């Protein structure tokens, strides 16, 4: 089943389960370390009850050497389990980082909500918890009954005192879970919303500054930030109160344990050495529970991160790597395609059907809001909510490996996004650079001479060239990227929106070259000049195909419709309403 691992586990749970051997070894090292934690207790008993009584220096030397050896073994066990967990954390990151990257990319592509925005933060939070002190509390907690059993062996009264304090601290841990999980998750969600809001405004800093929008946006951000601070403060205040109570219980335990031992010494039921040892042993028995209380917040954070990451991976399962086919020829068919979007009552595209053959240029026309850009994304297979069939060479787009299909597709969206890297890397789509193909694509887009005028030519970083490029030049670089490698299917969405006459001439030449190479081209535009190069026209209106077919036939139909509309009589004006007649009075 997609998104699930073996034995019905989710993919994330199955990945963690694959580290079960490491956790078992950590448990064994924890067993050694916790058993050897009894060494200080035994050493105190021997010193107070044997060495001080016998005054034997040899006995003190032997007992001390044995204890030091046991301390060395205990330190080695603790170091080994820490090192093993750190290595497991690195391997966990290596096992999931690529998968999380792909899932978060697909979630952003499908316009999903918050889980994708902090996917890597969630992965880091899980890894840090699994390699931090919090996880040791869960490995050490099972050994608390052993220490309590030794206290019962010293005296039953001490055992019952330790059980009482253990119940109190366990109740605090449970209360911390019940009371802090909801406020902490709400504060975390609010923090993500505030950061997302701020980042979106920083990305448009030029627009904000130029039109004086900063004050209004800062007021909105301040209101959101104040709400976050209120929720964060409430969550932290509750956590601090529980921590303070836990510290008070711990201090009481240390003093009362010593007092209980002193009472037993006074009554002759316990030796002074046993009193000191019991105090240390009780502190050690309750230490894992106290650590759980102190690290409960990190546990809640890791638990929430696990849930979000698990939801993300389940919603975007790994694609089948076996989807490998021969390169497509570019034959495209859409059958009753319906494209919807969240928050809209009606679909954007409503039953669109069309065909395009290799070597054919299809020009898509239509008024703003008719669904032209949505159609472009549907053709690329990147529209999230799409019903119907989108076929490439007779196969659904989902039946292709995107890694193999990507080089066979070219896409120029309305919003040109050039990435951090050189001009050559952007044109080559950040794959291995083929210099001949990069230059050929740049020549087709009319860019070669312009790029050579830069000091570093094709190796100019976009950070340096970005401020020197006009909107039309950026669009032509995007065009060169779209046609790099002669892909089989090219979709150009308003490619001449920012072009001058020279740029538009280069665009038309590039389309003619693609047509001569039997490539399938979809050209979405408002400009009538592109119609001359079209083999077929598709006119969209209100998300439906109004008319489609060969260029001459469609133009004739549009002209006939225009004549009919011009010849139709204008609607008659409504008759004026007569004023009411005066009354007989």
Q: Largest sheet, described in full?
A: 6 strands, mixed
Distance between the termini: 88 Å
CATH superfamily of the largest domain: ABC transporter type 1, transmembrane domain
Task: Please give the count of helices.
Answer: 21
Extended strand count: 10
Radius of gyration: 36 Å
Helix coverage percent = 55-70%
> So, CATH architecture of the largest domain?
Up-down Bundle
**Might you state the CATH topology name of the largest domain?**
ABC transporter transmembrane region fold
- The outline comes out as elongated
Low-confidence stretches: 1-7, 573-585
Overall pLDDT confidence:
81
Task: Name the features.
single chain, 585 residues, alpha/beta, 21 helices, disordered N terminus, disordered C terminus
What report would you give on this structure?
- β4 (386-392) and β5 form a beta hairpin.
- 61% of the residues lie in helices and 10% in strands.
- The model is unreliable at 1-7 and 573-585 (pLDDT under 50).
- It is α/β, with parallel strands linked by helices and 585 residues long.
- 33% of the residues are buried.
- It has two domains: 6-315, ABC transporter type 1, transmembrane domain (ABC transporter transmembrane region fold, Up-down Bundle); 332-564, 3-Layer(aba) Sandwich (Rossmann fold), CATH 3.40.50.300.
- It contains 21 helices and ten strands.
- The chain has helices spanning 11-17, 20-36, 38-54, 57-109, 119-130, 133-140, 144-154, 156-202, 205-210, 214-266, 272-294, 296-315, 372-380, 402-405, 423-427, 435-444, 448-452, 462-465, 471-483, 501-516, 551-567; strands spanning 332-339, 349-356, 361-365, 386-392, 395-396, 409-412, 489-493, 520-524, 536-541, 544-550.
- α4 packs antiparallel against α5.
- The strands form two sheets. Strands 6-7-8-3-9-10 form a six-stranded mixed beta sheet, with helices on both faces. Strands 2-1-4-5 form a four-stranded antiparallel beta sheet, covered by helices on one side.
């Amino acid at each position: 089943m997609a998104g699930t691992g073996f034995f019905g586990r989710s993919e994330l749970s199955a990945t963690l389960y694959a580290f079960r051997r490491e956790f078992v070894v950590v448990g064994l090292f924890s067993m050694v370390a916790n058993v050897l934690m009894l060494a200080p207790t035994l050493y105190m008993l021997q010193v107070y009850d044997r060495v001080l009584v016998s005054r034997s220096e040899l006995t003190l030397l032997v007992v001390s050497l044995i204890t030091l050896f046991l301390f060395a073994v205990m330190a080695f066990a603790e170091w080994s389990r820490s090192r093993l967990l750190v290595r497991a954390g690195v391997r966990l990151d290596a096992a999931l980082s690529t998968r999380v990257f792909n899932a978060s990319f697909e979630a952003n592509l499908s316009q999903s909500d918050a889980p994708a925005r902090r996917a890597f933060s969630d992965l880091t939070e899980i890894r840090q918890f699994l390699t931090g002190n919090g996880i040791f509390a869960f490995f050490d907690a099972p050994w608390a009954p052993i220490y309590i059993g030794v206290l019962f062996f010293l005296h039953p009264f001490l055992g019952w005192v330790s059980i009482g304090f253990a119940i109190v601290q366990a109740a605090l841990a449970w209360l911390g879970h019940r009371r802090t999980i909801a406020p902490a998750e709400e504060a975390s969600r609010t923090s993500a919303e505030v950061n997302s809001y701020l980042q979106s405004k920083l990305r448009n800093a030029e627009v904000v500054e130029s039109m004086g929008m900063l004050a209004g946006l800062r007021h909105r951000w301040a209101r959101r930030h104040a709400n976050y601070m209120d929720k964060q403060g409430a969550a932290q205040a509750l956590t601090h109160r529980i921590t303070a109570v836990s510290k008070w219980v711990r201090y009481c335990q240390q003093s009362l344990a010593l007092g209980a031992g002193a009472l037993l010494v006074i009554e002759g039921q316990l030796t002074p050495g046993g009193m000191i040892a019991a105090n240390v042993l009780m502190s050690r028995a309750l230490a894992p529970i106290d650590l759980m209380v102190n690290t409960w917040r990190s546990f809640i954070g890791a638990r929430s991160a696990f849930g979000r990451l698990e939801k993300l991976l389940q919603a975007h399962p790994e694609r089948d790597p076996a989807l490998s086919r021969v390169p497509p020829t570019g034959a495209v068919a859409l059958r009753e395609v319906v494209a919807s979007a969240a928050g809209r009552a009606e679909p954007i595209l409503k039953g669109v059907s069309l065909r395009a053959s290799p070597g054919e240029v299809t020009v898509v026309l239509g008024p703003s809001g008719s669904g032209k850009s949505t159609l472009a994304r549907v053709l690329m297979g990147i529209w999230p909510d799409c019903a119907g069939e989108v076929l490439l060479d007779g196969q659904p787009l989902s039946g292709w490996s995107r890694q193999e299909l990507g080089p066979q597709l070219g896409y120029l969206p309305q919003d040109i996004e050039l990435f951090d890297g050189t001009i050559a890397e952007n044109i080559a789509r950040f794959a291995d650079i083929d210099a001949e193909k990069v230059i050929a694509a740049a020549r087709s887009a009319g860019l070669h001479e312009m790029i050579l005028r830069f000091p570093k030519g094709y190796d100019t970083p976009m950070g340096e060239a970005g401020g020197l490029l006009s909107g039309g030049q950026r669009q032509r670089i995007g065009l060169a990227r779209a046609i790099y490698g002669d892909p089989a299917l090219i979709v150009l969405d308003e490619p001449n929106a920012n072009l001058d006459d020279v740029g538009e001439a280069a665009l038309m030449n590039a389309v003619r070259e693609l047509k001569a190479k039997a490539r399938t081209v979809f050209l979405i535009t408002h400009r009538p000049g592109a119609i001359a190069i079209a083999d077929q026209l598709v006119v969209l209106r209100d998300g439906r195909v109004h008319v489609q077919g060969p260029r001459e036939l469609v133009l004739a139909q549009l002209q006939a419709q225009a004549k009919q509309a011009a010849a139709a009589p204008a609607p008659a004006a409504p008759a004026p309403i007569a004023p009411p007649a005066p009354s007989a009075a």
